[in-house]
C-alpha cells in the first residue's frame, strides 16, 4: 500500500489515498476564513473502490491536535460502505485563540478481509481574531425619503437585522434586512417627508456569532430648496405706445428649473404684442440665469406690467407673476435728434446764460458810438 499525503492550507483536500479496497477522496474545511469562537467543520470523505471484494467498515474517525493526543471530536462506528460507494464524516470544533492550527484527521477502517488499518492526515487551519463591526449611515436623496445603509465591515456574517427610525418619542418604522456577509451592505428606505429639518435616530440590531449587537446613527433630514425662477436686472424702454422689457430670469433655488417660459400677462391696460409677447428659455440650472426680451402695448395710465413665469421643478409645474414698474418719463419741450442730442425750444425771450436781447442791443449801440467818435478825432488831426 502506498500512501500519498497533500493536506495543507485553509481549504484542504487530498489526492486519493488508497489501500487495497478504500481511499480518502478529500478533506475540506469550512468556513474558509474561520475566526475565534466560530464553529469550524472538517469534512472527511471516504470511498470504497468499485474493485473491492466487499464492503469496508468505518470504525472510527477523529480530529485531534498533531502535536499531542488532545482530541477535538471522535466519531465511532460510522458504518459500512459497499464497493463503489462513499461516505462523508463531518467533524466540528472551535478555537478560542487566533493563529495557525496544526491538526490531524485519524481514520480507522476494517477491510473485507477483516484486517484493520489506520490512517492519519494533517490539516492546517488559519484562525483569525473575531471582529464584529458594522457601519450605519443615512442619506436624504430627495425631500421625501431617507436611505439607511448597514455595511458589514467585520469578518463574520450578521443576521436577524432590524432597523428602527425614531424622532423623539415617535417611531417612524421598523424594517428588516437579510443576512450580510463581510464586505457587503444592505439598504432600506424610510419615509421622512414629515420630518424635514429634524434629527432622526436610526438604530440597527443584529446577531453575529450567536450574540446580539446594536449600533445607531443620528441624521438630520435636510430639505433641498426646489428650483425657483425670479426676474432680475429688468430694464424697460418705451417704444411709441408700447414698451420693450429686457432682463434676466435667475434660478435662485436648489434644483434645476425646466421648460421656463416668461410672458406678458394680458390685462385691461396691458397687451402682449409681437415680436416677443412671450419668451421660451428652456432649462435654467441652479444658480444660473438666462436673458429674455418681451414686448407689450400699454395704456397711458398703466404704472406696471405683469410678467408671468412658468416652469417645471421636481415634476411639479409652477406659475408665478412678477409686476415690473413703468418709470414715469417726460419729453415735454424737448425734441430728440437722430444722434440722441436735444434742442431746447424756449419762448422766454432769453438767450443762453439768461441775457435779455435788449441788453445785447444797447451794448452794440454803445460800441458803434465809441468807434465813430474815435474815427472823427483821427480825421481832424
TrEMBL record:
Keywords: Membrane, Transmembrane, Transmembrane helix. The chain crosses the membrane at residues 354-376. The keyword Magnesium does not apply. InterPro entries: Ig-like_fold. It comes from the Archaea. Gene3D superfamilies: Immunoglobulins (2.60.40.10). Residues 322-352 are annotated as: Disordered. The keyword Membrane applies. This is CARDB domain-containing protein. It comes from Natronomonas aquatica.
